[in-house]
Amino acid sequence: MESHSTASREATRRAEAAAGLSTRLTTPEQIRLWARIALMLLLVVSHVPMHYLWRLFRLPSPWPRWFLGRVAWVVGARVEKIGTPLRRDVFYVSNHLSWIDILALGGASGTAFVAKAELASSPLVGWLAGLNRTVYVKRENRLGVAEQINQLRDALADNWAITIFPEGTTTDGKSLLPFKTPMLRVLEPPPPGVMVQPVLLDYGAVAEEIGWIGEEGGVNNAKRVLARQGSFPLRVHFLEPFFPADHPGRKAIAAESRRRIEAALVAALGHPLRPFGHDVAPVGYARDRAPPLAETGDLR
């Protein structure tokens, strides 16, 4: 009876958060929140200087990847990597639930991300995103799309792995939105040797609790997640890669990526997907809505 009451209370809190209401934390939750923030700051001061030391000697730095993976652990994610991620010359295409996606994917593969240009000026998050070789795009600048595509081409030419979240927003782990295609123009035509690897992020039973959906702000979502008790599994499925030339055009590449991710998600859930239960802004860069913490790789 007590567990049913707890589940009902948590469902109510999630609904209130999705409606844009601030979540009130209990004293134990506040303690967990600040303990995790302290651990994350400790990781900043221990990892970032080492990154600069590696760069000083012109060595490839593993520290951003280690940092992201360890922050994911502090947040509570117990990441299980399924499949083999390609390390270079790869364009990851992933579903999107949370800002934790960035930590998990970056820690598991060392990928860089596509982010909106405003993130670069964010005090701490922008600085850390820059350490991880983030590619910035101006989503409201329709006339600058060609320039942004050239940025992505240059990044791929440097043998980076790059991740995009083509749903354009975060969902609840039970749904999959249509894939937007602007950033896939970099694959028209594909650079020599570059492959596309679809990725499924599976949060299992906690997907709806973790998911950043509806009208919830980024700060409130981070507060809720950092205050929650215990850990949770996060399975990162690196699906079978394919040559983009086998599916010419960005729409065909998006469709093939989505088909593979949907099949893997249905298999993980054990039942068909459901329609997403929240309004999604129409495709249009000038009308985007995205609080700061989850903007890395978020194309909404």
Describe this structure in words.
The protein has 300 residues and is of the alpha/beta class. Helix content is 41%, strand content 13%. It is built from 9 helices and 7 strands, in the order H-H-H-E-E-H-E-H-E-H-E-E-H-H-E-H. Helix 5 links the parallel strand 3 and strand 4. Helix 2 crosses helix 8. It is globular, with a radius of gyration of 19 Å. It starts with a helix and ends in a 31-residue tail after the last helix.
Which helices and strands, and how do they pair?
Blueprint: H1 2-18, H2 27-56, H3 63-75, E1 77-82, E2 90-94, H4 100-109, E3 112-116, H5 125-131, E4 135-137, H6 145-157, E5 161-164, E6 195-202, H7 207-210, H8 218-227, E7 232-238, H9 250-269
Parallel strand pairs: 1-7, 2-5, 2-6, 3-4, 3-5
Antiparallel strand pairs: 6-7
Helix pairs in contact: 2-3, 2-8, 3-4
Briefly summarize what is shown.
Helices cover 41% and strands 13% of the residues.
- Quick one: overall form? globular
Spatial gap, N to C terminus: 41 Å
Number of strands: 7
Strand arrangement, major sheet: 1-7-6-2-5-3-4
Largest sheet: 7 strands, mixed
Average pLDDT reading: 84
Rg, nearest Å: 19 Å
Instruction: Provide the helix percentage.
Output: 40-55%
Low-confidence stretches: 282-300
Number of helices: 9
Given the helix and strand composition, which structural class is it?
A: alpha/beta
Q: Which percent band covers the strand fraction?
A: 5-15%
Secondary-structure element pattern, one letter each: HHHEEHEHEHEEHHEH
